Amino acid sequence: MPDVPARLLRGLVPVLLALALVPIPRALAQPAMATLDWTLAETLVALGVTPAGVAQVDAYQAWVGAPRLPEATVDLGLRSQPNLELLASLAPERILISPMFANLAPRLSRIAPVTTLPLYTPGRETWPQLRELTREVGRLAEREAAAERLIAETEARLEALRRRLPARVPPLLVVQFMDERHVRVFGEGGLYQAAMTRLGLENAWRGETNAWGFSLVGLEQLAGLEARLVVVEPYPVGVESALADSGLWQQQPSVLADSLITLPPVWSFGALPSAQRFADHLVAALEEAPHDD
Does residue 142 lie within any of the structural domains? Predict the structure, then answer.
Protein backbone atom coordinates (compact mmCIF):
# COMPACT_ATOMS: atom_id res chain seq x y z
CA MET A 1 0.00 0.00 0.00
CA PRO A 2 1.53 3.36 -1.01
CA ASP A 3 2.32 5.94 1.67
CA VAL A 4 -0.41 8.53 2.30
CA PRO A 5 0.93 12.02 1.59
CA ALA A 6 1.40 14.18 4.68
CA ARG A 7 -0.70 16.94 3.09
CA LEU A 8 -3.66 14.53 2.75
CA LEU A 9 -3.34 13.42 6.35
CA ARG A 10 -3.36 17.04 7.52
CA GLY A 11 -6.55 17.57 5.54
CA LEU A 12 -8.23 14.54 7.13
CA VAL A 13 -7.61 15.64 10.72
CA PRO A 14 -10.35 18.32 10.83
CA VAL A 15 -12.82 15.90 9.22
CA LEU A 16 -12.10 13.16 11.76
CA LEU A 17 -12.42 15.62 14.65
CA ALA A 18 -15.75 16.84 13.33
CA LEU A 19 -17.06 13.27 13.05
CA ALA A 20 -16.00 12.55 16.62
CA LEU A 21 -18.08 15.49 17.81
CA VAL A 22 -21.26 14.46 15.99
CA PRO A 23 -23.89 13.63 18.68
CA ILE A 24 -25.34 10.14 18.80
CA PRO A 25 -28.87 10.16 17.32
CA ARG A 26 -31.66 10.07 19.93
CA ALA A 27 -32.90 6.78 18.50
CA LEU A 28 -29.56 5.16 19.38
CA ALA A 29 -29.05 6.82 22.78
CA GLN A 30 -30.81 5.86 25.99
CA PRO A 31 -31.07 7.77 29.24
CA ALA A 32 -29.23 6.13 32.13
CA MET A 33 -32.07 4.99 34.40
CA ALA A 34 -32.15 3.16 37.71
CA THR A 35 -35.03 1.74 39.71
CA LEU A 36 -35.74 0.06 43.04
CA ASP A 37 -39.01 -1.39 41.77
CA TRP A 38 -39.12 -4.74 39.96
CA THR A 39 -42.29 -3.87 38.03
CA LEU A 40 -40.59 -0.83 36.54
CA ALA A 41 -37.41 -2.87 35.96
CA GLU A 42 -39.21 -5.56 33.96
CA THR A 43 -40.95 -2.87 31.91
CA LEU A 44 -37.68 -1.10 31.11
CA VAL A 45 -36.07 -4.35 29.98
CA ALA A 46 -39.11 -5.26 27.87
CA LEU A 47 -38.75 -1.89 26.14
CA GLY A 48 -35.14 -2.64 25.26
CA VAL A 49 -33.59 -0.49 28.00
CA THR A 50 -30.73 -1.75 30.16
CA PRO A 51 -31.30 -0.32 33.65
CA ALA A 52 -28.09 1.10 35.11
CA GLY A 53 -29.08 -0.28 38.52
CA VAL A 54 -31.87 -2.38 40.07
CA ALA A 55 -32.35 -3.35 43.70
CA GLN A 56 -32.04 -7.00 44.79
CA VAL A 57 -31.12 -8.46 41.42
CA ASP A 58 -30.99 -12.08 42.63
CA ALA A 59 -34.44 -11.81 44.19
CA TYR A 60 -35.75 -10.25 40.98
CA GLN A 61 -34.52 -13.24 39.03
CA ALA A 62 -36.22 -15.60 41.52
CA TRP A 63 -39.59 -13.82 41.82
CA VAL A 64 -39.99 -12.13 38.45
CA GLY A 65 -38.13 -14.66 36.33
CA ALA A 66 -38.40 -12.92 32.95
CA PRO A 67 -37.42 -10.75 31.26
CA ARG A 68 -33.97 -11.40 32.70
CA LEU A 69 -31.96 -8.40 33.81
CA PRO A 70 -28.94 -7.70 31.58
CA GLU A 71 -25.51 -8.58 32.95
CA ALA A 72 -24.58 -4.87 32.84
CA THR A 73 -27.27 -3.96 35.39
CA VAL A 74 -25.72 -3.25 38.81
CA ASP A 75 -27.27 -4.63 42.00
CA LEU A 76 -28.15 -1.69 44.28
CA GLY A 77 -28.74 -3.75 47.41
CA LEU A 78 -32.00 -3.91 49.34
CA ARG A 79 -35.06 -2.27 47.83
CA SER A 80 -35.87 -0.60 51.14
CA GLN A 81 -32.24 0.34 51.88
CA PRO A 82 -30.36 0.76 48.60
CA ASN A 83 -26.65 1.52 48.47
CA LEU A 84 -26.86 5.24 47.75
CA GLU A 85 -23.12 5.66 47.16
CA LEU A 86 -23.16 2.92 44.56
CA LEU A 87 -26.26 4.41 42.97
CA ALA A 88 -24.62 7.83 42.80
CA SER A 89 -21.52 6.33 41.17
CA LEU A 90 -23.71 5.13 38.28
CA ALA A 91 -24.71 8.74 37.57
CA PRO A 92 -28.28 7.93 36.49
CA GLU A 93 -30.20 10.60 34.66
CA ARG A 94 -33.44 9.51 36.34
CA ILE A 95 -34.54 7.19 39.14
CA LEU A 96 -37.90 5.46 38.89
CA ILE A 97 -39.77 4.32 41.99
CA SER A 98 -43.26 3.20 42.96
CA PRO A 99 -45.25 4.75 45.84
CA MET A 100 -43.99 1.90 48.07
CA PHE A 101 -40.59 3.59 48.15
CA ALA A 102 -41.82 7.18 48.43
CA ASN A 103 -40.05 7.61 51.79
CA LEU A 104 -36.71 7.27 49.96
CA ALA A 105 -37.51 10.00 47.41
CA PRO A 106 -35.84 12.90 49.31
CA ARG A 107 -32.51 11.03 49.54
CA LEU A 108 -32.72 9.66 46.00
CA SER A 109 -33.47 13.11 44.60
CA ARG A 110 -30.01 14.26 45.73
CA ILE A 111 -28.59 11.84 43.18
CA ALA A 112 -30.94 12.36 40.23
CA PRO A 113 -34.51 13.42 39.43
CA VAL A 114 -36.99 10.94 40.88
CA THR A 115 -40.25 9.93 39.19
CA THR A 116 -42.89 8.01 41.14
CA LEU A 117 -45.11 5.82 38.96
CA PRO A 118 -48.21 4.36 40.64
CA LEU A 119 -49.91 1.12 39.69
CA TYR A 120 -52.81 -0.90 41.13
CA THR A 121 -54.79 2.14 42.21
CA PRO A 122 -57.94 1.02 44.09
CA GLY A 123 -61.17 1.71 42.27
CA ARG A 124 -59.58 1.65 38.81
CA GLU A 125 -59.50 -1.18 36.29
CA THR A 126 -56.14 -2.89 36.20
CA TRP A 127 -55.56 -3.35 32.47
CA PRO A 128 -55.87 0.34 31.52
CA GLN A 129 -53.41 1.11 34.32
CA LEU A 130 -50.93 -1.39 32.86
CA ARG A 131 -51.16 0.34 29.50
CA GLU A 132 -50.72 3.79 31.08
CA LEU A 133 -47.67 2.66 33.04
CA THR A 134 -46.09 1.17 29.93
CA ARG A 135 -46.59 4.39 27.97
CA GLU A 136 -45.20 6.55 30.78
CA VAL A 137 -42.09 4.40 31.20
CA GLY A 138 -41.69 4.49 27.42
CA ARG A 139 -41.91 8.28 27.43
CA LEU A 140 -39.35 8.67 30.21
CA ALA A 141 -36.99 6.19 28.56
CA GLU A 142 -37.50 7.72 25.12
CA ARG A 143 -38.94 4.43 23.91
CA GLU A 144 -42.47 5.53 23.01
CA ALA A 145 -42.67 3.34 19.90
CA ALA A 146 -41.40 0.32 21.83
CA ALA A 147 -44.08 0.93 24.48
CA GLU A 148 -46.84 0.88 21.87
CA ARG A 149 -45.40 -2.31 20.40
CA LEU A 150 -45.30 -3.95 23.83
CA ILE A 151 -48.95 -3.08 24.46
CA ALA A 152 -50.08 -4.32 21.05
CA GLU A 153 -48.00 -7.50 21.19
CA THR A 154 -49.18 -8.36 24.72
CA GLU A 155 -52.85 -7.91 23.87
CA ALA A 156 -52.48 -9.88 20.64
CA ARG A 157 -50.69 -12.66 22.53
CA LEU A 158 -53.44 -12.94 25.14
CA GLU A 159 -56.09 -13.03 22.45
CA ALA A 160 -54.22 -15.85 20.70
CA LEU A 161 -53.91 -17.72 24.00
CA ARG A 162 -57.63 -17.28 24.67
CA ARG A 163 -58.41 -19.07 21.42
CA ARG A 164 -56.17 -21.98 22.47
CA LEU A 165 -58.05 -22.71 25.69
CA PRO A 166 -60.08 -25.93 26.06
CA ALA A 167 -63.81 -25.55 25.50
CA ARG A 168 -64.58 -26.07 29.18
CA VAL A 169 -62.36 -24.74 31.95
CA PRO A 170 -63.65 -24.85 35.54
CA PRO A 171 -63.38 -21.78 37.78
CA LEU A 172 -59.80 -21.29 38.94
CA LEU A 173 -58.43 -20.43 42.38
CA VAL A 174 -54.99 -18.86 42.10
CA VAL A 175 -52.87 -18.89 45.25
CA GLN A 176 -49.30 -18.36 46.42
CA PHE A 177 -48.04 -19.82 49.70
CA MET A 178 -46.86 -17.57 52.52
CA ASP A 179 -46.32 -20.47 54.93
CA GLU A 180 -47.66 -24.01 55.28
CA ARG A 181 -51.08 -22.80 56.51
CA HIS A 182 -51.61 -19.47 54.75
CA VAL A 183 -51.82 -18.35 51.14
CA ARG A 184 -52.37 -15.24 49.13
CA VAL A 185 -55.49 -15.87 47.09
CA PHE A 186 -55.75 -13.58 44.08
CA GLY A 187 -58.89 -11.84 42.93
CA GLU A 188 -60.29 -8.51 41.82
CA GLY A 189 -57.82 -5.69 41.30
CA GLY A 190 -54.72 -7.78 40.68
CA LEU A 191 -52.52 -8.73 37.75
CA TYR A 192 -53.61 -12.37 37.61
CA GLN A 193 -57.28 -11.39 37.56
CA ALA A 194 -56.64 -8.86 34.79
CA ALA A 195 -54.97 -11.52 32.64
CA MET A 196 -57.68 -14.11 33.40
CA THR A 197 -60.40 -11.64 32.40
CA ARG A 198 -58.77 -11.09 29.01
CA LEU A 199 -58.48 -14.85 28.60
CA GLY A 200 -62.16 -15.30 29.45
CA LEU A 201 -61.45 -17.43 32.52
CA GLU A 202 -63.57 -17.43 35.68
CA ASN A 203 -62.00 -16.73 39.05
CA ALA A 204 -63.54 -18.73 41.90
CA TRP A 205 -62.45 -16.23 44.55
CA ARG A 206 -65.26 -13.76 45.30
CA GLY A 207 -63.89 -12.48 48.59
CA GLU A 208 -62.46 -9.06 49.29
CA THR A 209 -58.98 -8.18 48.11
CA ASN A 210 -56.49 -5.48 49.04
CA ALA A 211 -54.99 -2.80 46.79
CA TRP A 212 -52.71 -5.42 45.25
CA GLY A 213 -55.55 -7.76 44.36
CA PHE A 214 -55.14 -10.52 46.93
CA SER A 215 -56.40 -11.70 50.32
CA LEU A 216 -54.27 -13.48 52.92
CA VAL A 217 -56.28 -16.48 54.12
CA GLY A 218 -55.86 -19.77 55.92
CA LEU A 219 -56.11 -23.01 53.94
CA GLU A 220 -59.36 -23.82 55.71
CA GLN A 221 -61.00 -20.87 53.92
CA LEU A 222 -60.45 -22.57 50.58
CA ALA A 223 -62.41 -25.65 51.62
CA GLY A 224 -65.74 -26.01 49.88
CA LEU A 225 -64.85 -23.82 46.91
CA GLU A 226 -65.56 -25.62 43.64
CA ALA A 227 -62.50 -24.72 41.64
CA ARG A 228 -59.25 -26.00 40.20
CA LEU A 229 -56.35 -24.83 42.34
CA VAL A 230 -53.46 -23.00 40.69
CA VAL A 231 -50.33 -22.53 42.81
CA VAL A 232 -47.81 -19.93 41.71
CA GLU A 233 -44.25 -20.63 42.86
CA PRO A 234 -41.90 -20.07 44.60
CA TYR A 235 -42.77 -21.98 47.75
CA PRO A 236 -41.24 -20.59 50.94
CA VAL A 237 -38.43 -22.74 52.32
CA GLY A 238 -39.74 -25.97 53.85
CA VAL A 239 -43.37 -25.45 52.84
CA GLU A 240 -43.52 -28.06 50.07
CA SER A 241 -42.32 -30.84 52.35
CA ALA A 242 -44.66 -29.68 55.14
CA LEU A 243 -47.66 -29.82 52.79
CA ALA A 244 -46.98 -33.49 52.11
CA ASP A 245 -47.90 -34.13 55.75
CA SER A 246 -50.70 -31.55 55.98
CA GLY A 247 -54.13 -33.15 56.24
CA LEU A 248 -55.71 -29.76 55.55
CA TRP A 249 -53.86 -29.49 52.25
CA GLN A 250 -54.14 -33.13 51.25
CA GLN A 251 -57.94 -32.90 51.51
CA GLN A 252 -58.18 -30.05 49.03
CA PRO A 253 -60.27 -31.32 46.07
CA SER A 254 -57.61 -30.47 43.46
CA VAL A 255 -54.98 -32.33 45.47
CA LEU A 256 -57.24 -35.36 45.92
CA ALA A 257 -58.13 -35.38 42.21
CA ASP A 258 -54.51 -34.85 41.15
CA SER A 259 -55.63 -31.83 39.11
CA LEU A 260 -53.52 -29.23 40.92
CA ILE A 261 -51.76 -26.82 38.57
CA THR A 262 -48.36 -25.43 39.59
CA LEU A 263 -46.89 -22.47 37.71
CA PRO A 264 -43.32 -21.13 37.82
CA PRO A 265 -42.73 -17.76 39.51
CA VAL A 266 -44.59 -14.81 37.97
CA TRP A 267 -44.42 -11.39 39.63
CA SER A 268 -47.96 -10.89 40.92
CA PHE A 269 -47.42 -7.13 41.25
CA GLY A 270 -45.96 -6.82 37.76
CA ALA A 271 -46.89 -5.08 34.53
CA LEU A 272 -47.43 -6.28 30.95
CA PRO A 273 -44.39 -8.60 30.80
CA SER A 274 -45.65 -10.47 33.88
CA ALA A 275 -49.22 -10.53 32.56
CA GLN A 276 -48.07 -12.23 29.38
CA ARG A 277 -45.81 -14.64 31.28
CA PHE A 278 -48.68 -15.63 33.59
CA ALA A 279 -51.05 -16.14 30.66
CA ASP A 280 -48.50 -18.20 28.74
CA HIS A 281 -47.86 -20.56 31.65
CA LEU A 282 -51.52 -20.82 32.68
CA VAL A 283 -52.84 -21.63 29.22
CA ALA A 284 -50.07 -24.17 28.61
CA ALA A 285 -50.94 -25.89 31.90
CA LEU A 286 -54.68 -25.91 31.12
CA GLU A 287 -54.01 -27.42 27.69
CA GLU A 288 -52.14 -30.29 29.32
CA ALA A 289 -54.56 -30.78 32.23
CA PRO A 290 -57.48 -33.24 32.04
CA HIS A 291 -60.69 -31.44 31.04
CA ASP A 292 -64.23 -32.14 29.95
CA ASP A 293 -64.84 -32.18 26.20
Answer: no
